[in-house]
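Q: How do we represent a protein-ligand complex in a form that can be generated token by token?
A: Start from the inputs.
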Amino acid sequence: MTTFQTVSLAEIAHRFRSDLSPLEQVTAIYPCCISSYYASLITAPHDPVWKQCVPSVEELDDTTQLPDPLDEERLSPVPGLIHRYPDRAVLLVSNRCATYCRFCMRKRKVGCAGGETDFSAAYNYIATTPQLRDIILSGGDPLMLLDDELHQILSALRRIPHVEVIRIGSRIPVTDPSRITPALCRMLAEHHPLYLNTHFNHPQELTAEAARACSLLASAGIQLGNQTVLLKGVNDDSLTMQKLMTGLLRMRVRPYYLHQMDLVRGTAHFRTPLEQGRQLIGSLRGRVSGMAIPHFVIDLPGGKGKVPVLPDMLHRDGEVWQVQTNSGEWVRYADPV
Ligand SMILES: *Cc1c(COP(=O)(O)O)cnc(C)c1O
Ligand code: SF4
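Then emit the structure tokens for the protein with iron/sulfur cluster bound:
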């Protein structure tokens, strides 16, 4: 495991003159870890960075939802490998992160003991499942592993001929960008085609350090995407979203997904109504480049998969279509006869 500097809740309480002692009952259930770097981005209590990393007693209010609504455990043919779609699977390679996000969809697992991945069984399953073309390393955060540990996993996957694409999902460029070193990038570049999806949620996270990390990765030929989670009180307004998405493009990161919050226990206070997200994504159309617009997706409970949610802009009108412009005007469009 890599090491990094962290701050305690007591230090945050001292810095912002707040009483955070009631949070001990929260962290007894959902662990807390905040990197010094990420904590340094907090400008005031309850700002968008604070809300993402400092626990809240509201986490304990949410008891009706399930710990694993996406049925990941049921969809795991071997411990630590989630196989939900025909041609791709998720391999959980670490259960730690440089900062534990309070809205995490794997809140049941990250930072907790147990749930070890059986690597040899996972490699064996992938090797004997020829339709698997695309393996996604996730966790926890794969970049919490040492370069050598990650190199071993990538090499084992690359020995399987039908594995075409490897993806890494990591929030390290957001929470501990100094972990992205030239040596790490050189090692990753031995395993192309390699994609890395990072996880920026707010323009406050688009710092010079994060930009340097993304630039190092991109210069090593790693295609960078971004998955944002739509979070109430953090990024659920059009201007914040525009700044985030256009700022990411400037950092050589292509927005990929905007996720509707999953129905994960302990995260209800972050959830927005589905219609709000639909309007938000609609509000970006025409205002910013299509390059800056992610797919807004809902990951359906029961492991039914991700489904894009689109603004309602298309109606059949007899022989022709009616298509709505970004400014709301309906325009006729005829199919070929
Ligand atoms: C999100 C996800 C994937 C990847 O889906 P893409 O749409 O290809 O990015 C694969 N497996 C599981 C279990 C997932 O949740
Ligand atoms: S970095 Fe990812 S896996 Fe880790 S706590 Fe945040 S959302 Fe969860």
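Residues 34 and 99 are 4 Å apart (CA to CA). The chain has a mean pLDDT of 96.
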